[in-house]
Amino acid sequence: MTTGLSAPSGGERLGFRVEGMDCASCVGKIETALNRLGGITDVTVNFATETLQLSRDTASTTTSNDIARKIRALGFDVTELPPAVIPSTPARHSEAHSGHDHSGCSGEHDHGHDHHHAHHHDHSDCGGHDHGQLAQTPVSRTDPTSPPNVSMRVEGMDCASCVGKIEVALARMPDVSDIRVNFTTEMLELNLVPGSGTKVADIERTIKSLGFGVSNTRELSSSSDVAVDVAPAPAMRNQRWWQTRKGKHVIGLGLLMGSAYLIAQFIPLYAEWIFALAVVAGVLPFARKAFALATSGSPFSIETLMSVAAIGALVIGEAEEAAAVVFLFAVGELLESVAAGRARAGIKALASLVPKTAILLDPSGAQRSVPATSLRVNDLVLVRPGDRVPADGQIVQGTSSLDESPITGESVPRAKAKGESIYAGSINVDGVLKVRVEKAAADNTISRIMLISTQK
Question: What is the annotated localization of this protein (predicted)?
């Protein structure tokens, strides 16, 4: 489990994601139960973001496992958050409940159902993937003891559930530690003990067995500390949804179901058998993935649920309904993949806002072109009309209008003069500016936006 951040009282701060809360009554149940545990204080549950934060006395016998067990006993799914996203100070109670209207919320209402059920269904906006598996023992997320020596790009992740599946599977492999999967950038980093019986190819094989693609594998050579490309990345190309693996699967299932319906009209006696054939052909990829997940430590996945449902429908003689279930599930997976792809495209578009080069002014006034990433604080740069600003800084000479819409969303260019601050990625409209760099490339506004967007 994660080592929490230090709390002001000498304890530690712990954070959890809690899924399955339907109303303020759920929040109250969790807070009441946790406040009864020894050594636990400052319990705040945010209904809108489905997060829980608390302070734990390090001398207490209550562990993070005990906290997670207590929450699951109430019928909710829970997983521990990494320390990087946990504030070091407790949030005010009023903030923890923001985002939910309590008007008309009469205390212990249950919305017509009991919360003490298994909660294995999906409560998130992530259609097509389950989060019920988060109720398993969480993957260890201690701070890395050394820089990762293996990295690779993992393709096909549609939501945080995919991240969990990969981490659970790799955590079961010997000599593999410090597993970090970034959903937004599709990057996996880990530490592999040199000389281990587990090879990089074994890791790739495990990930591919879960239904994901692997590319751009890089391994840090222990002898030279130089990254070696084990599997170079293929040429990147923008694929339409129908060109993707999931898109082709949906199209194939649609044609198969359409053919089954058409043939059933002419040969009604064999309709059940035709639909059964369509179900078997359609559910096979999901069943194969469900088996791989089960053997990798994630037995209660949505693929398992869907496969059982389809096979069960066949057993009771509802082949037509089973075919519809398989097809609709495949469509849901495709839509989820398209949405995730658009989100990643937005992050990549942010990176393209900052120009690759900048015009650096020497103390003598001479101009030379340098990489924008090499700019340092207090450097002077020249920004001509039509250029993008290469770094966050302050105008020291000149007046111009700047289009800041890519960063702030403001549609009208704003007039800027000496002494005013400007953002990297802004477009200089009509004047020549001399700008003093105030932040390095890694710390400018766009870099910080990208950092926040790519954190898990």
Answer: Cell membrane
**Please, are residues 424 and 405 in contact by the beta-carbon 8 Å criterion?**
no
Distance of alpha carbon 347 from alpha carbon 185, whole angstroms: 9
Distance of CA 244 to the CA centre of its chain: 20
pLDDT for 91 beyond 60:
no
Q: Can you tell me the mean pLDDT for 233-259?
A: 75
Q: Domain residues of the chain, as ranges?
A: 5-119, 150-231, 241-351, 357-440
pTM above 0.70, yes or no: no
Q: Which CATH number fits domain 5-119: 3.30.565.10, 3.50.50.60, 3.40.440.10, 3.30.70.100?
A: 3.30.70.100
Q: How confident is residue 79, by pLDDT bands cut at 50, 70 and 90?
A: confident
In the predicted model, what is the mean pLDDT of residues 230-241? 54
Q: Cα dihedral sign for 299, 304, 309, 312?
A: negative
Do 5-119 and 357-440 share a fold? no
Q: CA-CA distance, 20 to 18, in Å (whole number)?
A: 7
Give the model's confidence band at 238: pLDDT under 50 very low, under 70 low, under 90 confident, else very high.
Answer: low
CA dist., res. 355 & res. 168, Å (int) = 39
User: Rounded to whole angstroms, how far apart are CA atoms 301 and 210?
Assistant: 11
As a CATH number, domain 150-231 is: 3.30.70.100
Torsion of CA 364, 368, 374, 380, to 10 degrees: 40
For the record, the structure tokens of 266 come out as 């002419």
d(C-alpha 328, C-alpha 317), whole Å: 19
Contact 187, 218 (CB under 8 A): no
Phi and psi, residue 287, nearest 5°: -65, -40
Q: How far apart are CA 254 and CA 248, in angstroms?
A: 10
Cα(64)–Cα(85) distance, integer angstroms: 16
State which H helix or E strand residue 17 sits in. strand 12-19
